[in-house]
């Protein structure tokens, strides 16, 4: 088998990975505060001592998260909050999110939809007694016009230190710095996925993948013919 086939194969594998990432983005285009994922590739020249001297191989360089803000829309739900500006809601165990569809659990604590407690500047987690909930533009949490706490909002200079735990959850052991985005009660941030761009990208990626497949098939056919000639 010609070793050149591995060059085309490396490209096909990377395009398959890119297809997976784009599909993930599209699947979450309507998910609250979802941050799209991007993949980057790098090319390099094969070691001059190898049989592929001068040929270019490709490999995955990194998978990163685009933290740009999604659009904000009104819901009217008092437990929904959107962060207009930089920052993340601080959660228990060094976890962070921008997804603001919160809830009051059976014990009266403010949590995410998956049950992770939301931290305040005074207490961790924030306890909400029964009553009218108001969340001010600075994150002030009040019930029946009595302020109980303030949402803990932090940001990170190096967002690359954040490890993705799922669609909308991040973790880091590094300390964050206080952030002051505008908090909008009764609103949610949407996904930052641009569907038209992702659809265009998936078409281009599919064509590139198919091109690599044709090259691989062509090399394989050529190798088969050479073997047949050698037998004769």
Explain what this protein looks like in three dimensions:
- This protein has two domains: 4-68 and 192-231, no CATH class; 72-189, no CATH class.
- It is elongated and about 85 Å long.
- It contains two helices and 17 strands.
- The protein has helices at residues 4-27, 195-231; strands spanning 37-45, 56-65, 72-74, 81-84, 88-91, 95-97, 103-104, 110-111, 133-135, 140-143, 146-150, 153-155, 163-164, 169-171, 177-178, 182-185, 187-189.
- Helix 1 (4-27) packs antiparallel against helix 2 (195-231).
- The protein has a six-stranded antiparallel beta sheet, with no helix packed on it. A three-stranded antiparallel beta sheet has the order 9-10-11, with no helix packed on it.
- The longest helix is centred in the last third of the chain and has 37 residues, at 195-231.
The DSSP helix count reads 2
Distance between the termini: 18 Å
What is the count of distinct domains? Answer: 2
Q: Largest sheet, order of strands side by side?
A: 13-14-6-5-12-15
Quaternary assembly: single chain
Helix/strand-derived category reads: alpha+beta
